[in-house]
Amino acid sequence: MQHQAKKRFGQNFLIDENIIQRIVDSINPQHDDNIIEIGPGLGAITRLLLQRTDKLNVIELDRDIIPKLLFNCRNDGTPIIHEMDVLKFNFKDFRENTGSQKKLRVVGNLPYNISTPVLFLLLKDREVIQDMHFMLQKEVVDRITAQPGSRTYGRLSVMIQTYFNAASLFQVPAYAFSPAPKVESAILRLVPDNSFSQHINNHKAYEELIRQSFSQRRKTLKNNLKNLCSAEHIIAAGIDPGQRAEEISIEFFLKLHVQISSD
User: Under 8 Å CB-to-CB from 76, ≥6 apart: which residues?
Assistant: First the structure.
C-alpha cells in the first residue's frame, strides 16, 4: 500500500533493505524485550522487530498511515499502536502499565523538528529505559557526541552525555530513503549511565547552569553566568572564568554545579 509522505510530520521512509537489517542487528532485539518504536511509518523497521520479539508497541501520530502499517506487517505480527504525539507520551506510566519488569528499549526514526524535544523527554524518563536507538540527522548526532573544544559541542552534547553513554554507530545515506532527504542521517545509541549524574543534586539547577553557559557562545563563562554565580565559584571549580563553555568538560561543569549548590 502506497503512502504520500507528509512534510508536516517530517516523513522520509526508509527503503534500503541492507540499512534496515543493519539497524535491527545493531538493536539486537530479544524475544522478551519491552520495545517501543517511535514513528514506525510504513513498518520498515517494525516488520523485522516483530519477527524477533513477542510483543511490540509503536507510537504513531499520522492516523492515515496506520492501516498501511498494519497491512505491511500482516505477515510478521501485529504491533500495539498508540495513536498520539510522542511528546505527550508518558514512558514511565507506560512501563508500569505493561506489567513487565524489564526496562524499555526505545527505537525510532526521529524527524529533525522534534528530535531534541523527544530526547529531553526521554532524558526525564531515563530511569525506566534500558537503551535507545535512533535515526537522526547526522548533524544532530554529531552535536550529541561532540567533545569539548569542538565547534559542535554545546548544550545538547553536555546534557545528553551527562546522563547517557552516547555513540554514533554508522551513517545512513540520503538514497536509503523515499523521498530522499537533503541531508545525511546517522544511527545513535544511548545507554543511561549515572557516572556523572550521581553528582547532581538538582536536575533543574544543573540544566539551567548548562543553558546559561551556552546562551552566548562567544562570551566567557564569567559573563554568561553572572546571574547564577560569581567568578569565585568558577575558580573554586577549577575553571578559568575567561574560558568559553565550549572548552569545558562535563566533569568541570559538575564541579561548578556542586560549588554553586553548596552555597
Answer: 46, 47, 48, 50, 51
Rounded Cα gap, residues 95 and 82, in angstroms = 13
With 50 as the cut, is the pLDDT of residue 169 above it?
Answer: yes
**pLDDT, tens digit (0-9, with 9 covering 90-100), for 190-222:** 999 999 999 898 999 999 999 999 999 889 999
Same domain, 125 and 49: yes
174, 194, 214 - which closes a domain: 194
How is residue 201 annotated by DSSP?
A: S
Structurally, the chain folds into a number of domains equal to 2
C-alpha cell recorded at residue 30: 530479544
Range(s) of the domain holding residue 234: 203-261
Whole-model pTM? 0.91
* CA dist 231 → 203, 226, 237 (Å): 22, 8, 10
Considering the domain architecture, whether residues 144 and 94 belong to the same structural domain is answered as: yes
| Vertex 102: Cα angle to 157 and 166 (nearest 5) | 15
